[in-house]
Task: inverse folding
């Protein structure tokens, strides 16, 4: 499959037999390393797996430690995000990552509205308008919404504001931000989540508003819906945690003080 930037995305093996007993972390020259028994964890491109913060290392170690007889790689979202940050399989630089994230504004889920049915249109207004209003105030931008198939006309100044805001994050955090945006199909919901304005549950619900509306009307395939919902929550939560753990402590303190 292709990655978000058009390059080849890394596809891990789905499962593998667990081959280690103990998981530990140690501090190396490049950061914190993960040890599986006496072996150091490596990335898919065989680089030493090193992460910038101890908290992130502990979170990754927990993912490896919680695997049972088989290692289910698809449940290890933080490990996958670290691999992406270390290997950068799509070979993009900071500017390209930021541009890809901001491009989502043009197709942002919460900006596309329906006119019919009226009950869904009303639900979208009630649930999405407050988040859009928060983002406009928080970042001092104009976003708006539209019922046109072309979507709203996002001003260039709004895009530039988001570009400069995202530039305050480091490369690792940006990989996480883009991952969350890709899951929620919304820059606005992702920023609301990362800025601690809305919870993971709320962000996921708002990103799936139309599906949830249809389910309330027509019922759903119980297990499939529950699985999708849990999976999306897990990914959104992992991505958000990753961003917080990868943002330099100074940035995090600064952002919290601003709030």
Result:
């Amino acid at each position: 499959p292709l990655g978000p930037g058009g390059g080849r995305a890394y596809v891990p093996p789905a499962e593998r037999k667990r081959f280690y007993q103990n998981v530990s972390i140690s501090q190396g020259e490049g950061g914190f390393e993960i040890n599986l028994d006496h072996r150091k964890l490596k990335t898919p491109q065989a680089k030493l797996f090193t992460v910038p913060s101890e908290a992130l290392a502990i979170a990754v170690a927990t993912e490896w430690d919680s695997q049972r007889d088989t290692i289910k790689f698809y449940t290890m979202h933080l490990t996958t995000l670290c691999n992406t940050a270390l290997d950068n399989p799509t070979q993009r630089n900071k500017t390209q990552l930021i541009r890809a994230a901001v491009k989502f504004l043009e197709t942002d889920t919460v900006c596309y509205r329906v006119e019919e049915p009226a009950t869904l249109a009303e639900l979208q207004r009630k649930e999405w308008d407050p988040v859009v209003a928060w983002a406009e105030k928080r970042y001092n931008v104009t976003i708006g919404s539209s019922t046109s198939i072309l979507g709203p006309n996002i001003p260039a100044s709004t895009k530039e504001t988001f570009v400069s805001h995202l530039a305050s994050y480091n490369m690792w955090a940006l990989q996480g931000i883009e991952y969350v945006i890709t899951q929620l199909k919304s820059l606005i919901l992702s920023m609301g989540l990362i800025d601690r304005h809305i919870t993971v549950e709320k962000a996921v619900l708002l990103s799936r508003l139309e599906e949830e509306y249809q389910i309330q009307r027509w019922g759903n395939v119980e297990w499939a819906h529950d699985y999708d919902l849990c999976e999306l929550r897990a990914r959104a939560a992992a991505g958000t945690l990753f961003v917080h753990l990868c943002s330099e402590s100074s940035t995090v303190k600064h952002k919290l003080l601003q709030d």
